[in-house]
Amino acid sequence: MKRILLNSVLVLLLFACSNKAAKKVVVLAELPFYEDASFTPVWMSLEDPKLKEFHAIKSFTFTNQNGEIINEKTFEGKVYVTDFFYTTCPGICPKMTTNMKVVQDAFLTEEDVLLLSHSVTPEKDSIAQLKEYAQNKGVVDGRWHLVTGDRKTIYDLGRNTYFIEEDLGLEKTEDEFLHTENFVLIDQNKHIRGIYNGLNKASIAQLISDVNILLEEGK
């Protein structure tokens, strides 16, 4: 079973509304923090001085679908959702992209929410290729960045900073392909606050709810 954020204080309720089944996410608490690939929740106050030393996303530099340089400063003070994909993927990526667009569309008027999708085949996914993909998939420029760049940097970030991949405890070389359906939620201070199954509608609904928690948290 894939790793999905399991938060005992977040409950999914199903109820009937206008004779149609609907899903309602009830939020009862703040989100935990995560610091390693086990995704064991760590509950901390925002005022806790330990947060200054807590695991955070490190610096990076990539190029997006418009040929613009994207780095950690692009996401400064923003909530963002990240994933890893490639444009020619025939399997899980199209569904992941569809669900990431659901997240994008939920926050089209919210400037403090961004999306970041890394190509895991950067040698093939040129700027032109990413641009065509973005146009075909309804990506909104400035809100959702599809990026290419140095392969080693992308894989290192995915495995060792975002902890995006499965196979906890198994060492992988740079040559082994990075492929995962997970989405990771990052807060305004570059801390990991959740991991979600990017293929699952209920998980995407929970992600959208959790983004709203972080927006409130940042006020």
UniProtKB/TrEMBL annotation:
Q: Which residues bind Cu cation?
A: 89, 93, 179
Record-linked InterPro entries: SCO1/SenC, Thioredoxin-like_sf
**Keyword field:** Copper, Disulfide bond, Metal-binding, Signal
- One MF term in GO for this entry? metal ion binding
Record's signal peptide:
1-21
Which pairs of Cys residues are joined through disulfide bonds in the record? 89-93
User: What top-level branch of life does the organism fall under?
Assistant: Bacteria
Family of this protein: Belongs to the SCO1/2 family.
Name-wise, this protein is SCO family protein
What species is this protein from? Putridiphycobacter roseus
